[in-house]
Predict the structure of Acyl-coenzyme A thioesterase THEM4.
Amino acid sequence: MNGPSASPPAPQGSEEPAARAVALPPTTPPAGAVLPPRAPEAPAPGTLLGSHYDHCFGCGPQHPQGLQLTAVAGEGLDVTAEFTVRPSHQGGPGLAHGGVLVTAMDETLGTLNWLLHAAAVTGRLETDFVRPVPVDAVLHIRAWVTGVHGRKIYSAAEGRIGGPDGPVAIRAQALFVQVKLEHFTTHGRPEDIKKAMDDPDLFKRARAFEVNP
Ligand SMILES: CCCCCCCC/C=C\CCCCCCCC(=O)SCCNC(=O)CCNC(=O)[C@H](O)C(C)(C)COP(=O)(O)OP(=O)(O)OC[C@H]1O[C@@H](n2cnc3c(N)ncnc32)[C@H](O)[C@@H]1OP(=O)(O)O
């Protein structure tokens, strides 16, 4: 049986040689991408990175059902985080749901924003599930920037179990896209935006992220 494909197959023999060239995955930095230095405003290595929004499902301390993930800034453009798989995160019996693991990877990759001092949202996230992750396991996540090209931020992450040097259970590659504050104020549900704007701490944090893509 044929798997899903992005476009119908071209008739045989109709392809030009250039069209047959294997394209780079969209999460791989293109030629011309750079690896910038840590932003001057980046938190010092070892700093516990705060939540970008208290009610975030990934990192919000005020989200009782959320993952409440906390990440720590690395020496370069990298972060580490630990995620403990709870019974409420099950997919198969006693095993983590893949989508929950992806959320933990997405959130950790998102904290790289702090080191670049840029607000960016996930455009594309590719994941490989390498081995099953049991309930009660701690997923030791490391994420790092692989390149920046215009507004596009390329990054990768891996999650290991049994310790920070244990076997890899999940790998991810991502493309984040830098956005302005209006991305949130234009698209978010108005009552939540209003509450967020009324919180001077959050507003200050958000303005500090203001970029000029
Ligand atoms: C007062 C309130 C304040 C509250 C806020 C506090 C501060 C927050 C700070 C930090 C937040 C961090 C949050 C982390 C949370 C974890 C991460 C998430 O889960 S984020 C949620 C999931 N993601 C989305 O909802 C994106 C939905 N998509 C979009 O909004 C757009 O599609 C967006 C912004 C991604 C791009 O849209 P365009 O119109 O701005 O730009 P275009 O021109 O389309 O793309 C720019 C470049 O990126 C490529 N691109 C875009 N999407 C791509 C894709 N899927 N695959 C490959 N390339 C893609 C394009 O080809 C283009 O490339 P070329 O410059 O031409 O080379």
